Amino acid sequence: MAVVSKEPGTEHVAAEGARRGRPARRVVSGTGTVVAAALVLAALVVPAEFGGLTPGAFVRLPLEGLLGAALILALGGRAQVVAAACAGAALGLLTVLRALHLGFDAVLHRPFDPVLDWPMLGPAVDYLGVTSGRAAAVGAVALAVAGAVAVVLLTTLAAWHLTRVLRRHRAVALRGLAVAVAGWLGFAITGAGLVPGTPFASLGTARFLHGEAHRVAASLRDREEFAELAAADAFHGTPGEELLTALRGKDVVLTFVESYGRVALADPEFAPEVGAVLDTGTRRLREAGFAARSAFLTSPTAGGGSWLAHATLLSGLWVDNEQRYRTLVASDRFSLTHAFRRADWRTVGVQPAIVRAWPEGAYYGYDRVRAADDLGYRGPRFGYATMPDQYVLAEFERAERAEPDHGPLAAVIPLVSSHGPWTATPRLIGWDQVGDGSVFHRMPSGAAGPGSGADRDRAERRADYRRAVEYSLNTLISYVETHGDDDLVLVFVGDHQPAPTVTGPDAGHDVPITIVARDRAVLERISGWNWDEGLRPGPRAPVWRMDAFRDRFLTAFGPREGAPGS
């Protein structure tokens, strides 16, 4: 048997050390409790809208937290631990979901849809890879996953720690909870707050979950509702000889101008310069014999998701989420490109942003698709844009319109020089100098590597956006001046508003649309639309939903009287 001996006085030393250590342990424990409570509080009151992300939003008392504490106190033993772990994990997942809402609101002007929006994350990673490099994209994904896991673990640990505190001090916790509930009721009745304009009594999490439940239910119904809308098509069976009769013999070129939104014409910092480009362009084209009519369309998307806008305008259906887009491209819905092809136009899709397989492009029924690798460009990238708008139009002209007897042509051309992040914009050069694009290597902006623009402040991003839009518009105007003839009909339309970092909050989804032609009979066919004259639509110009354009266009330029959209 071992004998343990103690020197005289060691018990006293140990006891004294323990007494001295207690204050330090109390400080550590108290600090942990404060941190845990702050973390749970922040998770319960963090807003899901980017504009609401202010310090005042966190100075609130959430009823959900008080009810959670009451439930923990009502339980006993192991049930408390299980309930705390489940509540903490759920709160962490809820925080991650709110973070997704914040991100979507900051970039796309809308909330995140937990049913339909997961496929949008792939294009977001691709965009980051192009603008900031593959390493940055991989790092961002890894950081996002690690952050989501960390949030769930931290909220779970915080809830578990607070449960232990409540168990140790149950009597004090019950009295404090009663006071807090009474205080919450008083603040809720009066609507008062510690921060002006922000009520102190919060039910934000309950309202958020209620809204999410409705959003999920609506999203689950959306597929069937969209299928019903797609099936109702007044033009699907129209013979080719009855389609687009007023445009026979014309080359119709439909161009989408990236991020060309109403803000470019309405914001006081943009309107003078962009408006001057359009007004000068109106005068220049008038001198060349052309006229134009302009208005606005309301896009189904903002800040990104260009393909949703393209699909909406061409199909005549409101395509505002990825599920609708995938349903559409797998269907036989009649589109504008189908109409031109059925009426014996040669249809071409010029797609400078497509750098990989594009199976969904088969839906549009082009006779020929020319993606980025098919355009023969030998110059540098300009930020996100694979090539300048001027090169795209010059190559289109050379390859598709240069032959005198090329036959009627219908082309859809998304132009990407005005796509964010607007860190590199080329300058317009003579059309005879474009060549294979090597000339653009001489431009400083072309030599600069891709960048995300994250290091640029809002004023710089806004100035870059304005210059990019001016470049795209000047390119289109110059193209019509240089290559336009009696048979050219140009339609150019913005696909969506730019991101909120440019527009600010509540900018809406309106985008300008313009039709240009030298043949006055073309514009006479749309006189009933009451669009404004010239390239710049005024603030009171008509506004249509983008999905209305297909039917109105087919009606205006066909022989059918009284058809939908007339």
Using brief descriptors, characterize the structure shown:
566 residues; alpha/beta; Alkaline Phosphatase, subunit A; two-stranded parallel sheet; 18 helices; 11 strands; disordered N terminus; disordered C terminus
According to CATH, the fold-level topology of the largest domain is: Alkaline Phosphatase, subunit A
Average pLDDT reading: 89
Shape verdict: elongated
Q: In the CATH hierarchy, what is the superfamily of the largest domain? A: Alkaline Phosphatase, subunit A
Q: Uncertain segments of ≥5 residues (pLDDT<50)? A: 1-5, 446-452, 562-566
Q: Radius of gyration in whole Å, from Cα? A: 30 Å
CATH class of the largest domain, anyone? Alpha Beta
**N-to-C SSE string, H for helix and E for strand:** HEHHHHHEHEHHEHHHEEHEHHEHEHEEH
Number of helices: 18
Instruction: Kindly give the count of domains.
Output: 2
Give the class from helix and strand content and strand pairing: alpha/beta
Task: Characterize the structure shown.
With 566 residues, the chain is an alpha/beta fold. The strands form two sheets. Strands 3, 4, 5, 6, 7, 8, 9, 10 and 11 form a nine-stranded mixed sheet that branches. The chain has a two-stranded parallel ribbon with strand order 1-2. The protein has 18 helices and eleven strands. The protein starts with 9 loop residues before the first helix and ends in a 10-residue tail after the last helix. Mean pLDDT is 89; it is low at 1-5, 446-452 and 562-566. It has helices spanning 10-45, 63-74, 78-108, 121-132, 134-168, 170-190, 204-231, 263-266, 271-287, 306-315, 322-329, 336-342, 389-401, 444-447, 458-483, 500-503, 520-524, 549-556; strands spanning 61-62, 201-202, 251-257, 291-298, 346-351, 368-371, 409-415, 488-494, 510-517, 532-533, 543-545. The chain is elongated, with a radius of gyration of 30 Å. The chain crosses the membrane at residues 27-45, 57-75, 82-104, 135-160, 172-195. Residues 295-500 form the Sulfatase N-terminal domain. Keywords: Membrane, Transmembrane, Transmembrane helix.
